[in-house]
Each structure stands twice: as structure tokens, then as C-alpha cells.
Amino acid sequence: MTIRHLRIFIAVHDELNMTVAANKLFMTQPAVSQAIKELEDYYGVLLFERLSRRLYVTESGEILYQYATHIIKLFDKLEDNLKENAFQQELTIGANYTVGVALVHKYIEEFKNLYSDAKIRVVVNRASILIEMLRKNELDLALMEEVLNESGLIEDYFSDDRIAIVAAPNHHLVAQKEVTAYDISNEPLLLREKGAGVRNLFEQRMNEMGLSIKPYWESTSATALINAAINKLGIAVLPFLLVKEHIAAGRLKEIKVKDMDLSRKLTIVYHKNKFLTTAMQDFIRICHES
Fold first, then answer.
1. CATH of domain 3-83
2. Span 228-249, pLDDT tens digits
3. Do residues 260 and 84 make contact, with C-beta atoms less than 8 angstroms apart?
């Protein structure tokens, strides 16, 4: 089994077509088929089911894919460092919207003090996308809310966070002495899209109280939701870090809901097979200390 075998296997896994994978690799289709057969013979497993001239990845194939993508990425990094500049550091960091807007720039600034020539790429997206990118080894680390029941990923808690329910200062619930989850459910709700961590936690808490929600407005943009709340279009449910300046300036007021815990933790997430370089370990340390 060689690096060549793993590159061929990854291409076939991604394309699910021997001929397309062969064209992608500038190889012949029989050579690709032979490499897959050699892998299957070497491990004594079936990596692809061949049904009606289509390929389907087996469970063994998925396991090999998880390891193969990490091995290839690590091998490529080794070659880049040896051939070019062994001291140049590269990091690809994922961040949820909260961290991407409010925190990650501070961590990068401190990291640059240690590694002035470092190349850093940041991907800001919702939790479900970041998790998938971690599994494919497209990210070194992700800074995001807690992930539950995600096998193969390691979480390292680094900060507390909470969700705030906010509205325009003259909204009728702001002056109400006690606000319940039922009160909130009857208001026009301004929410992030499905799959966003803040939306997931809010829906979970409402469901625990026997309530379902139907958003009046959904958006991938926190700024759009903040502006909608300021302009009295409804109640926004967003991370506190993204609305605290608007609350301090009096543009928004926070509505406290009785018996609803909207606290959460921010974590550094990485794949269990990820090799943590010294630079990655320093970045993690900075997140803890900042």
C-alpha cells in the first residue's frame, strides 16, 4: 500500500466513477481499477460495491477514506515544508459566525506575533458545514459551539457564550415584568437559518418547554436580523457577543425569559487523527489565554 494507492482511492471515492477518477488523475481506467483491487486484496475487504454499473462506498471504504484524507494532507504538508520553507507555518481555521465576527481576529493577531510569516486562512460557516470540513481534513481546527455525539472529533472548551433574545427598546415585552417562553413563541421571530448553532439551541430549549416555533424571518446574516429588530420587525435570537454593542448603545433591549437557559460553551474542535503541529498548539493556547 502506497501514497499512490491512497490518492487513487480518494479520487474514486469522491467521483464514484472509475473512468472519471482516471481522467482526473491522468491515468487509464484499468490502472485505477487495478489499484483499487490491490488495496482490497491488501486489506482483505471490499471498498466499493459494484451494482448496476454504479459504485457505492462500503463501510470499510468510509473508514479508509477518513484515514486516507488525513494521511495525504499530512504527507503533502511534509513535502511542502521540506521543499520550500521549513519555518513557514500554514493554518486553516474554521469559525462559527460568533467567533468569526467577534473573536478570531484577536487570536490571529496574537498568533502573528509568534509567526510573522504564517499563512492563515479562515472559513466562517455554520456548525454542520465546519464539522463536515473537519472530517474531510479541509480544516486544521474549528472554533465553534459544542458539538454533541460527533464521533472522531475532539473538543477543547475555551470560552463561555450565551444567546440573547433582543428587541427594539419600545417593544411591549421589554416592559413586561415576567416573560415566558410562551410569550416569545407568539411574537414574530427573527432567526438564523436551520443548522446554525444559535437556531439549534433556541429550538431545543423551546421544544423542551413543549413549544414549537415558526420564524417570521430567517437569514444567514446576523446584521440583517439585528437591523430588523431595531426597525421593530420582531424579536431577534442571536449570540450575545454580536448584539452587546447595540444593547450598550440603547438600540436594542435584551428580554430575559423565565426558566430558559441559553448559555453555551465555545470549543476548539479538531479531528482525532489530526497531527497538532507546534503552531497549532500555540494557536490553541492563545485561544485559552485571550
1. 1.10.10.10
2. 999 999 999 999 999 999 999 9
3. no
> Burial letters for 101-138: b for 16+ Cβ neighbours within 10 Å, e otherwise?
bbbbeebbeebeeebeebebebebbbbeebbebbbbbe
Separation of alpha carbons 12 and 112, rounded Å: 39
Place of cell 420564524: 215
Taking only the tens place, the pLDDT of each residue in 79-91 is 766 655 544 578 9
**Cα 21 from chain centroid (whole Å):** 28
User: Which residue in the block uniquely carries the three cell numbers 475487504?
Assistant: 45
Is the pTM higher than 0.90? The answer reads no
Residue for grid cell 424571518: 217
Please report, as a single letter, which amino acid is at residue 209. M
Q: Cα separation of 240 and 222, whole Å? A: 11
CATH class of 160-264: alpha beta
Structure letter (DSSP) for residue 30: H
**Options 3.40.50.300, 3.10.129.10, 3.40.190.10, 3.20.20.70; CATH of 90-159+266-289:** 3.40.190.10
CATH 3.40.190.10 residue ranges for the chain = 90-159+266-289
